[in-house]
Amino acid sequence: MHGLLLNLAVIGYICATGLALAHLVQRQELIHRLASLATLAGWACHTLALVVHAVELGRPPLGTLGEAVSVAAWVVVLIEMIAERQTGVRVLGAFVLPVVLILSVKANATPAASLEPALGKTWIWVHIALALIGIAAFVLNFAGAVMYLLQERQLKARRPGAFYYRLPPLETLDRLTYRALALGFPFLTVGLLLGAVSARTAWGSLFAFDPLALFSFVAWAIYAGTLAGRAAGGWRGRRAAYFAVLGFAALVLTLGVGLFLPGRHAS
Amino acid sequence: MTLFVAGLSHKNTPVELRERLAVEEDKLREALRDIQATGVVREVVILSTCNRVEVYGVTDVAGEARSVAFRHLCRQRGVDPGSIEPLLYTHVEDAAVRHAFRVASSLDSMMVGEPQILGQVKDAFALAQSCEAVGPALHGLFTQAFNVAKKVRTETEVARHAVSVSFAAVELARKIFTTLDGKAVLLLGAGKMSELAARHLVEQGAYPIYVVNRTWARAQELARALSGTAVPFDELGAALASVDIAITSTGAPEPLITRDAVGRALHGRGARPLFFIDIAVPRDVEAAVNTLDGVYRYDIDDLKQVVDANLRERAREAQRAEALVEREVAKFQARLGDVEVIPTIVSLRERLEEIRLGEVKKTLARLPDATPETRAAIEAVSSAIVSKILHTPVTKLRESSRAGAPRSWLELVHELFGLGRRA
Fold it and tell me: pTM of the prediction?
């Protein structure tokens, strides 16, 4: 049952991605509305799938990295829908949904493995959930930064091209990027702290020589630096956008490491 | 009964002739009345702008209607009808519909996407209405043309991008800043184009406005005109640090704003972007300023490039608009045709259904022991026969109406099935 719903969700996301990209090219109101509808439909199926799965498992569907990635995709879509509504950046879907698609396909392809004994504790779930919300916000941070860099390049080059007409103003994109960062950072921080503390109790060391934990700390440091730079002033715009891309690369590496290298998160 | 449009436009008629034919409102009323009085046209709308003079109408004899209409207009304006005859174009039926849609959507305009034409078409239609020259056919055509024009405006960007340098500057500002509300503007030097750009920015909510000029009196004068503040010339550096947009247009032989000066100004202003619009020749802002992070500098050539790109973008969008118009023409024609044949299709269906129900009732009366399955089967088979029989006539009727000649078909169907006289 949950597998069927998950497939429906992926189909919804595929349609939504295609439509969002078509809207980016064609800029037709109808296509945008259809894309929003497909996104919502996919997300609704995804929600049901997660609920059914949780009931089947008798625990939150966060036990394996595959499950966690699926939940991350779910949070990304939720934040994307809210952010699009709030900022009025209608092309946001075209930049976020492809990432969602990759995440959810990856999540489906990852076989479920047995649980580590440490996963029994409640605050491990909290650790995973908080980290995931943080990661989801950083997907948006990344999408906003990519759009910013594209638009900024066109404006600097003084030769308007396709993106000049299609992307929103720089200020709007910068604000979107900043808000996503400000939202994601506390979640990631608390999530990582809980992870470190639980690693210490479970394995006696803060990082427990786990590659995922090390990489996620690198990503955290990049985001902390960007946030500090922004708060101190003068760190907006292009530089902040570059760091958003860098931070996201570290996060992707983190997840890649979790999925492919042996470690305590790999199960 | 044929829908037609006849006229001449900027495409093939020189302005000398167009301006001589252009009709003002009271003369237009007279023309509408006179043309209708000839009895050749049933409905008529005259569109007269500086770029086109067109007569839209419904007639039984299209060729004659055109010569009647233009003979009258020529007589009224003292133009030799022979001189315009070779310039006139005529479109009938779907070509006329297409033409009306394209004109209202500004796709036939000299500057594609210009916004005035829709208002002019609306005025022409309202005037004809007030002269009682509009009947159901033109009413349907024009109301739909207004809808199509609106659709073209909202669904394509054919009218969206600036085609003048000063508007292009404003548009660029809106690609940098989310809103121009409360954005501070510095105006350095005086010039018609820079003042115009500043006015556009003020209209979009830019505030406050600072004016710097080597001549203090000129600065004060311009500041008054724009409700801004005059700033002494030697405070230029400080002003740069506080504004978001700077428009320059001095006659200075050397750049007044150097990369170093802007670099210094950036220190005091966090990371707010700074947008230079340099309209002066020779230029007032050093080209290297554009290399600074968060600073965008456009000179007059850059702005012209943007305008060119906008024109290309409009042309691309115009192609999409043409496709949209094409779909709307097909829809309009289909609806027009269906309106004529639908009553017949409905009564044909009702007639056959009546026969079917009667026969089914009779048959079932003779089969008192029939099981529910049998009854259902009889219902199903009779319904299937009826819809199979109906299929071809209904399709033919629809096709004939789309081809524009449903009359003979409608009569034939009425005769064959005894549908009674049509209203």
Answer: 0.78
